[in-house]
Design goal:
Chains A, B: This is Probable farnesyl diphosphate synthase. Two copies of one chain form a homodimer. Chain A has helices at 3-24, 38-48, 55-66, 71-92, 109-112, 115-134, 142-156, 161-171, 178-203, 208-235, 238-241, 247-250, 256-260, 262-280, 288-299; strands at residues 102-103, 106-107. Chain A is mainly alpha-helical. Chain A has a two-stranded antiparallel ribbon.
C-alpha cells in the first residue's frame, strides 16, 4: 500500500460519507416526523458538512472491509458516528464550553446561527445518529443493530465522550495527574475512535476475539490521535489547523506532551504505531490500510 | 375507576419510574464505559430526579397494560423516555434558550451546577435513553426494541421535540399563524406524549391498527396537555406551577388560548377528552384509566 493509495482511500471514504450525510440531512421528514424546520436543518448541515477529514467513518468502512462485511450498512453506521462526532464539536465550541469562533476555518455553528440553534442542532444530530442505525435501511440483523447502538451510546455518553468533556472542563480548574489525563483522553477522544474500529467487527458478525482485537486497535489509534493532537497544539499555527492553537498551554491544561516533552511524545507515537501493527498482524496484508491509518494519525500535520 | 384510584396508579407509576431511573443513574460504569464522572452524574440526577409527575412514563406503563404487555420492559422504556423529556427541560432552561432559574421550585441544572455541566448532562441523558432501550435487559425481541428506538428518535429529534423547540424560539421573533402554532405544539409537546401512548402497543406487539389507534390517542392527549398548559400560563401563579408563569404573554408568544380565549379553550378541552374516550372505546373498561388520564391532563391545576 503506497501513501498515495492510502490518501485515495481516505478521500473515497470521505466522499461516500458526505454523500450519505447529505441524503440523511435532507428536507423531507421521515415517517413519524412532522416536518424538519429549515433553520435548524441548515444549522445541522453547517455542523456536519464542514470539510472534516472523516477519519472515524473511514475507520468504520475499512474495519468492515477487513472482515468483508456489507459496505452499505457500514456507510450508514459511519454516517451515524460522524453525526455524533460533529454534534460534540458543535456543543464543545459553545461559549459555555471551549468558546471557539472558528472550526476548520469557518464560523462555528453558534457564530453562524446563534447559541440556541447550536444547542438544538447538536441535540438533533445526536438523536438522528441512533435513528440512522435503528432504521431498516441499515441492512443488518436486528441484534447487530442493537449491539451497535449500545456500543455507540456507551462510547458517546457519560462513560465515554461526554464524560471525557466534563473531565476536561474540570481539568482547567484542578490539574489532573497523569492517570487522570489518560482517563480523560481515553474518554473524550479515544472512545469514539475505538468504537469506529470495533464497529466493523460488529457489522461483519466477526468473532468476539476479533471484535476485542479491533477494539484494542481502536484504543491504540485513539491514544496516537490524541498525542499527535497535543503535539500539534504545541507546534502548529492556527492557519494550518483551521482553529485556535496553543490553547492547552494558555489554559494551563496538562497533557502528556506537557508532562513528558515532545521528544518523548514522538517516541511514544512510534511505539503506538508498532503496537497497532502487531495487533493486526494476524490479518496479514488485508489489514495494511488500517496500519497505514495508525501511521497517518501519528504523523498528521493538521 | 374513581379519581382516588387514578391518583394511586399515577403515584405508583411515579415510584416505579423513579426507582428505575435511580438504578440507571448509578455510579458504576456499564461494560464499554470507562467511568462515570461524579459531577456530571450528579448534574444528570439533578435534572431527572426532580419531583416530576412522570406522566409520560405513566402513559407508557398503562398503554402497555392495556395490551397485557410486559411491565418490566415497559418500565425501562418509560425511564428512557423520561430521560429524554428531562434532558429537553435541562437544555430548554439554559440562558441561550428559555433562560429559567427555577424548575419545579428548585434551581435549574445550570444554576445548581454551571452551563457546561447542564449542556453535557442533557447530552448524556439523551444518549443514555437509547442505551436503556437497546440493552438486553429490556426483555423484548430485537425488532421491537429497534422500532421503539426509531419511533423515539423521530419523536425527539428535528422532526419532533427538538424541531418544535426551534420553531418555538423563532415564534418569539415572528409570530406564527394558527397552523404554525398547531405544528409547533404538535412537535414540541405532542410528539413525546404520542410516543408514550404508542409505545405500549409496540412493547406488547399489538396490531398495526391498535398501534395507530394508540398513536392517535396520544396525539389527542398531547393537544389537551398543551392547551391546558397555555391556560395555566394565563391563570395560575408561579407558586402553584413551581416555575415562572405569564411568560407566553410577556414574550408576545401566540397560543391557541391567546387567539381564541379561555372559554373556547375550556370547550375544546372537553371535546378532546371526548375524542380520547371515543378512540379507546373498542377496548371497553380496560381503557378506563387511560381515559381518566386524558381527563386529568385537561383539568390539571399545575
Amino acid at each position: 500500500m503506497t501513501a498515495q493509495s492510502f490518501a485515495d482511500r481516505l478521500s473515497h471514504a470521505r466522499a461516500l460519507t458526505e454523500a450519505c450525510l447529505d441524503g440523511l440531512l435532507g428536507p423531507e421528514p421521515l415517517a413519524g416526523e412532522c416536518e424538519r424546520p429549515e433553520t435548524l436543518l441548515s444549522a445541522m448541515r453547517h455542523g456536519v458538512l464542514n470539510g472534516g477529514k472523516r477519519f472515524r467513518p473511514f475507520l468504520v468502512l475499512e474495519s468492515t472491509r477487513l472482515f468483508a462485511g456489507p459496505e452499505d450498512a457500514a456507510l450508514r453506521v459511519a454516517a451515524a458516528l460522524e453525526c455524533i462526532h460533529c454534534y460534540s464539536l458543535v456543543h464543545d465550541d459553545l461559549p459555555a464550553m471551549d468558546d471557539d469562533d472558528l472550526r476548520r476555518g469557518r464560523p462555528t455553528v453558534h457564530k453562524a446561527y446563534d447559541e440556541a440553534s447550536a444547542i438544538l442542532a447538536g441535540d438533533s444530530l445526536l438523536t438522528l445518529a441512533f435513528d440512522i442505525i435503528a432504521d431498516d435501511a441499515t441492512e443488518l440483523d436486528a441484534k447487530a443493530r442493537l449491539m451497535l447502538i449500545s456500543a455507540l451510546s456507551r462510547a458517546a455518553g457519560i462513560g465515554g465522550m461526554a464524560g471525557g468533556q466534563a473531565l476536561d472542563l474540570q481539568a482547567e480548574k484542578i490539574a489532573p495527574n497523569e492517570a487522570g489525563i489518560v482517563t480523560l483522553q481515553a474518554m473524550k477522544t479515544g472512545a469514539l475512535i475505538r468504537f469506529a474500529a470495533e464497529a466493523g467487527a460488529i457489522i461483519s458478525g466477526a468473532s468476539d476475539d476479533n471484535r476485542a482485537r479491533l477494539s484494542q486497535f481502536g484504543t491504540v489509534v485513539g491514544l496516537a490521535f490524541q498525542l499527535a493532537d497535543d503535539l500539534l497544539d504545541l507546534t502548529a499555527d492556527a492557519a494550518t489547523m483551521g482553529k485556535a492553537t496553543g490553547k492547552d498551554v494558555g489554559r494551563g491544561k496538562g497533557t502528556l506532551v506537557s508532562l513528558h516533552g515532545p521528544q518523548w511524545a514522538e517516541a511514544r507515537l512510534g511505539q503506538l504505531v508498532a503496537e497497532a501493527e502487531a495487533l493486526l498482524s494476524p490479518f496479514g496484508d488485508k489489514a495494511e490500510i488500517l496500519v497505514e491509518a495508525a501511521l497517518f494519525v501519528a504523523t498528521r500535520e493538521n
